[in-house]
Structure formats: C-alpha cells, structure tokens
C-alpha cells in the first residue's frame, strides 16, 4: 500500500494525519517529518516523528506511489524551495502542499485543500499572514456579490470568503464553465468542513447589459460587491479595443449605476498597475474605471473604493502558465525582453489583502498593495525551468520575442501625480492624488457609446476602433 509522509508535525500536520487515517485517500500514514528537536523521536497518536528532514529523507526508501504532503503553511519561500529539492532528491514524485492561507494557520486544515506543488509555490516573496476570520467580520450575515467569480482573483476571493460568515455568496460571471467550476469547488469545500455555511448562488450574466444588471441587483439585494470582472489580456485587447472599453468601462458603469440604485453599502473595485499612466487600451479602460468608482464615491452614501496591485502569479493567461506549457513541450521559453520587469504576488496574498482593505477602507479611497521588488521576467523563466529539472540555455532555450502592442519594459505602481501613504495595515498603502482629475466621464461616455452600441442615427460610428482610439487619446491629454 502507498505510504504517506506528512512534512510538518504541527497542528495543521496533525489535523491532516487524522484525515489520512480516516479516509486513506493517498495511502497509509507512515510518519511525520520535522526539524523540531522537541518533536523528533516522539510519536504523535502513534505516528513516529522523524528528522531532521534533510537527513532522514536520504534514508527513506520511497516508492513511486508514495506521497509527501507539506503541512507547513507559515514556511517561507526559500525554505520551501530547499524542502522541495530535498523531497525530490529523496525520490518523491507525488508532492502535495497545504497552501499558506489564514484559515489553515488558524488550524482549519483539510485534505481537500492540499494540491500538487506548483512553481508559484516556490516563486516570489513569502506572503504576509492575514487573520481572515478576524478581517471578515464586516461581512458576517451580509449578502456578498463577486463579479468575475470564475476568474483567478474572483475565485480565490470566493474561497476565502467562505470564512467570512456571509449569509449569501453570489458568484457572478458570463462564463458558464468557470462559474460551474467554482460553484462545485466551493460546495465541495463546504462539504469537507472548510469555512462557514454561506448559501452559494451561481449567476450567469453580462455586465454589458445595463437593464439586466439593474434587474439582478434589485433581486439579489447585495450588501457588498467585489468587482473583479474585466478583459485583462493586454495584446489581445489592443486587437479588440472596442470590446475592452465596452466590457471594462461600460460594464463597470452599469454595475455602479445598479449598485447606486439598489443602495449597495460597500463596493470594492479591483484595479491594476497598468492603469498608471496607461499606454494600452486595457490600461486606459482600467484607469477610467478607477475614475468611475472615485467619482461615484463622492455622490453616493455607501463606501466605494478601489484596490490597485500588479501581476499575480499563475493567473489565467499570465506568464507562469505560459512558461509551464512551453517547458512541458520542450521549449523554447519566450521572454519579451531581457530587461523586462514586473511586480508579482501570489493570488491568495493579493485576495487576503483586498479583503482586509475592503473591511477598513474609507469611501472614495484608492488603495495600493505593497508588491515588493520587481522581478526580471528572464529570472522568473530561469527559475521555472530549473523547477522542472532542466538547465536554462542548455536543456531549454530562452527566446526573446520583443515588446508587443501595449506593453512596456517596466510598470509603475503610482503616477507622478500620486503619493502612496502608509496605513495601519501591513503591505497596504493609500494613494493620495496631488491634483483633481478634470476628465468629464459623462461626456466621454456619450462619445464612446455609439462606437460600442449600435445607434441608427450614427451607424458609421459602430465598432470604429480608430475613432475610439482618437477619442481616448484626446480625453487623456486634456
């Protein structure tokens, strides 16, 4: 029978050990592996604790069906990298990890939360620890709507929201399959005891339909909205600029209008570093969305705010999954430019910080997550190649493909007209603008509308991408 070794004999590891014994999901529990001298040599519920990990791993006789489960949710990235190398060298093919999210740190660990180790588990900085159950008290008994709930950010927000005690969790999106998947995943998590028993309601809809958005918010009576839905792929949106403005700008405007009409008390908009001094259609659309939210805050009784951050590791369509596929097919791994840099954080950390900021955020505020130091994309590519056991340049070639439309070598987290000010929350700053933006959003909307929606009085305007670009360029220069 396959053997299971749990790395980490702390509370999380012991909780998992109980589940392994009861369910025999991955095999028979063989031992804990740990570096703590006070635990090594003991037995916990009859299971031996072996260590130190690096030394004892060399002595284990690992068979291919055997599994190692890393149950050390507070471990730093450098430690995890070394641990992963140790387990691979010991012969483990199946290595799973219990992600380092706050529900687990608080002791609420479950086998269903474990998954195979991914490159992003070993990349970037060590995420900040957020006490989610404490942070989400403002959502207890409330009705919470997440737009783009099937996306990378939206789905992780939903996973973490399970711990918030919300009465209802609305999963809103226009992608049938992605909403189906997150709906089923959340229900499975609940069945296994993760989080609290919020009523989960999947909703298929389109932000571009203003009448529907007003109708559905009237029916749902949501108290809080997390708005993550957007078209996000920079080069793709450069080729489809009308779709980007129609979905991102007008979709957000429709959602805000419906939220105002139905008196939503808290509206949290997720924005991006590409909205800073934007040069891409995607960036411009998100910049305009920031202005929409902040303008609404001045007119609305509820709390309307935005949270800005850079890239997240392993989001759909991001560089990490692309590198993964390129490595798996034998290369080459394509890098835009040897000097291109981006800020990265893990999706769980970004979402925990968003939820924290939303709970204490003030109406009309724009918050910025601390992204740490920018990472060279080439360095990221080389780390991933090594993760899969290859040597960059020797086993797998790195190929430079040049900047694509809408891309720049370095992104900014704030503009020259903005000042990031520290808050009482670790890794969250508040952006203060030096001057007031004078852009007339209502007038801009009227000019863009016949391009995005057919007007029989102006048929020549419909889907005119050149006219759209010219209008946006003129508006941003004003």
Question: Can you describe this structure?
Answer:
The protein folds into three domains: 3-117, Rossmann fold, CATH 3.40.50; 132-311 and 344-371 and 409-433, 3-Layer(aba) Sandwich (Rossmann fold), CATH 3.40.50.720; 441-477, no CATH class. It is 38% helix and 19% strand. The protein has helices at 11-23, 53-57, 77-89, 102-105, 132-135, 152-161, 176-191, 210-220, 234-239, 241-261, 281-299, 319-328, 347-360, 377-387, 441-452, 465-477; strands spanning 3-7, 28-33, 43-44, 47-50, 67-70, 94-97, 115-116, 143-147, 168-173, 199-204, 224-227, 266-272, 303-309, 311-313, 333-335, 341-342, 344-346, 366-369, 375-376, 398-400, 418-422, 428-433.
Keywords:
nine-stranded mixed β-sheet; 3 domains; alpha/beta; globular; Rossmann fold
Give me the CATH superfamily of the largest domain.
Answer: NAD(P)-binding Rossmann-like Domain
Radius of gyration: 24 Å
Beta percentage is 15-25%
CATH architecture level-2 label of the largest domain: 3-Layer(aba) Sandwich
Outline the biggest β-sheet: 9 strands, mixed
Quaternary structure of the protein? single chain
Please state the average pLDDT score: 93
The N- and C-terminal alpha carbons lie at a distance of 71 Å
Number of domains: 3
Secondary structure tally: strands: 22
Category by helix and strand content:
alpha/beta
Q: Largest sheet, order of strands side by side?
A: 10-9-8-11-12-13-18-22-21
What is the fold-level CATH name, i.e. the topology of the largest domain? Rossmann fold
What is the global morphology? globular
Number of helical runs? Answer: 16
Text of the CATH class of the largest domain: Alpha Beta
Low-confidence stretches: none
**Fraction of residues in helices?**
25-40%
């Amino acid at each position: 029978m396959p053997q299971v070794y749990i790395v980490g004999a702390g509370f999380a590891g012991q909780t998992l050990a109980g589940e392994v014994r009861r369910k025999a999901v991955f095999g028979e529990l063989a031992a804990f592996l740990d570096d703590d001298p006070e635990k090594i040599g003991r037995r916990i519920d009859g299971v031996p604790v072996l260590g130190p990990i690096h030394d004892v791993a060399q002595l284990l006789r690992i068979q291919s069906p055997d599994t190692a489960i890393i149950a050390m949710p507070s471990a730093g990235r450098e430690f995890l990298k070394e641990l992963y190398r140790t387990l691979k060298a010991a012969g483990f093919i199946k290595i799973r990890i219990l992600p380092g999210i706050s529900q687990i740190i608080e002791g609420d660990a479950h086998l269903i939360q474990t998954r195979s180790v991914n490159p992003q588990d070993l990349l970037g900085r060590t995420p900040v620890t957020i006490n989610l159950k404490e942070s989400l008290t403002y959502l207890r008994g409330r009705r919470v709507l997440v737009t783009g709930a099937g996306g990378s950010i939206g789905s992780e927000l939903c996973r973490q929201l399970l711990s918030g005690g919300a009465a209802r969790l609305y999963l809103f999106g226009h992608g049938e399959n992605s909403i189906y998947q997150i709906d089923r995943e959340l229900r499975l998590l609940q069945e296994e005891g993760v989080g609290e028993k919020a009523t989960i309601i999947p909703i298929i809809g389109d932000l571009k339909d203003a009448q529907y958005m007003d109708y559905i918010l009237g029916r749902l009576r949501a108290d809080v909205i997390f708005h993550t839905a957007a078209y996000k792929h920079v080069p793709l949106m450069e080729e489809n600029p009308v779709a980007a403005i129609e979905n991102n700008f007008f979709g957000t405007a429709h959602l805000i209008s419906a939220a105002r009409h139905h008196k939503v008390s808290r509206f949290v908009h997720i924005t991006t570093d590409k909205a800073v001094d934007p040069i891409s259609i995607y960036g411009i659309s998100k910049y305009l969305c920031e202005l929409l939210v902040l303008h609404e805050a001045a007119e609305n009784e509820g709390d309307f705010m935005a949270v800005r951050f850079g890239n997240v590791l392993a989001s759909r369509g991001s560089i990490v999954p692309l590198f993964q596929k390129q490595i798996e097919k034998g290369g080459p791994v394509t890098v835009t430019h040897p000097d291109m840099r981006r800020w990265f954080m893990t999706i769980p950390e970004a979402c925990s910080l968003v939820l924290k900021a939303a709970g204490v955020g003030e109406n009309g505020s724009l918050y910025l997550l601390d992204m740490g130091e920018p990472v060279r994309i080439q360095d990221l590519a080389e780390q991933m190649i090594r993760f899969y056991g290859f040597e960059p340049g020797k086993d797998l070639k790195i190929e430079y493909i040049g900047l694509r439309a809408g891309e720049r070598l370095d992104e900014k987290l704030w503009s020259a007209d903005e000042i990031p000010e520290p808050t009482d929350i670790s890794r969250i700053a508040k952006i203060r603008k030096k001057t007031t933006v004078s852009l007339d959003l209502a007038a801009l909307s009227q000019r863009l509308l016949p391009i995005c929606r057919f007007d029989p009085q102006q048929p020549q305007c419909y889907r005119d991408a050149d006219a759209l670009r010219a209008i946006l360029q003129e508006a941003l220069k004003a």
